[in-house]
Amino acid sequence: MNFELAIERLKSEGFKRTPSREAILRLLELEDRYLSAGDVKKALAADHPTMSQDTVYRNLTSFSELKILEETELGGERKFRMHCDRHGHHHHFICMDCGRTEELDVCPMEQVSRALPAFVIDDHKFEVYGQCPDCRSAS
Fold first, then answer.
1. Which residues does Zn(2+) bind (predicted)?
2. With 70 as the cut, is the pLDDT of residue 101 above it?
């Protein structure tokens, strides 16, 4: 997802185009990692000093519900990133230190389906967590 597609989705769902929403989306378009509401507020504080934590959090939640953003939980905190533009099924590696993500073309669902033959699986989410090379070399 890019900024323009995100704005179009917001408009089509009846959301107004506001400076706060634009700033949040532009930031997330530039970042290839998961960010918390606090990360977003901190990154935007200099240019948007009156933007509240609540405004950031509400917008991130709305964007996630509209499938503009992907959401995960790291260290007990909700984090967000732009939804992947990539077509086709894939999963992610997520750095626990910086939130950087890498796409994975592997999926364990075939094994899971074999292990649960009597069950109907409607959906799944598979993420791998660790340290990226940059964070590993810095520690």
1. 95, 98, 132, 135
2. yes
